[in-house]
Design brief:
The protein has 220 residues and is of the alpha/beta class. Helix content is 43%, strand content 15%. The chain is built from nine helices and eight strands. An eight-stranded parallel beta sheet has the order 7-6-5-4-3-2-1-8. It binds pyridoxal-5'-phosphate.
């Protein structure tokens, strides 16, 4: 089993190669190490190798690990990538660098109230759901313009889109459609690509890849 630091070198090489293929600057791709279920020790190992962006699905788990991570790396950035309940919005806004899973007006309203209270707001991505009701979470493309407009009205402009393609389907078309939607709405950031498909995502324009098991090994 490679260590997280060894896997990191390999993942960085894949990103650099995919970026070169697409004539993109590899520095335009942020590697978010998705550390859900992983111990802080593994995160610290990646921290020592230069990783500062860590992704978590659950606010509670993130907050439990964060003090130790911040003690070693005060500039570590928390990316919340999982479905977010509105009652977690306050802690999310207080601690996250980015929320990748904004997907509905009620969550936007909770984030807006929390942003008022804390005087800060994380970078916001809207998670899009391109396949209809089958998938949990995510904003339908028809609902996207209203959500983006509500966010602007609330003074919290959305900066990007996030997508999780359906399992077991070829991901490239979903990435391309998400990139097109983002471009249509003038959104510069694209959070797409996981362990199985981040190289593809980079060639299609991902600015943030969310990689877990390719760095840390399989989750238990
Ligand atoms: C778990 C998770 C990831 C990372 O998945 P891997 O396949 O382990 O890379 C990325 N994005 C989201 C939303 C996740 O829940």
């Amino acid at each position: 089993m490679p260590t997280p630091a060894e896997s990191l070198s390999a993942v960085r090489e894949v990103i650099a190669k995919a970026a070169r293929t697409a004539r993109r600057d590899p520095d335009g791709v942020t590697l978010v190490a998705v550390s859900k279920t992983q111990p802080v020790a593994a995160m610290l190992e990646l921290g020592a190798a230069g990783v500062r962006d860590f992704g978590e699905n659950r606010v509670q788990e993130a907050l439990a690990k964060w003090p130790e991570l911040l003690a070693a790396h005060p500039d570590a950035r928390l990316h919340l990538v999982g479905q977010l309940q509105s009652n977690k919005a306050d802690e999310a806004v207080a601690h996250a660098h980015a929320i990748h899973s904004l997907d509905r007006p009620s969550l936007l309203a909770a984030i807006a109230r929390a942003a008022q209270r804390h005087g800060r707001c994380p970078t916001l991505f809207v998670q899009v759901n391109l396949e209809g009701a089958a998938q949990k979470g995510g904003c339908a493309p028809e609902a996207l313009p209203a959500l983006l407009s509500d966010a602007r009205t609330a003074g919290l402009p959305v900066e990007g889109l996030m997508v999780v393609p359906p399992l077991a389907l070829e991901p490239a078309p979903w990435f391309a459609l998400t990139a097109k939607l983002a471009a249509d709405h003038g959104l510069p950031l694209l959070s797409m690509g996981m362990s199985g498909d981040y190289a593809t995502a980079v060639t299609i324009g991902a600015t943030h890849v969310r990689v877990g098991s390719a760095l840390f090994g399989a989750r238990t």
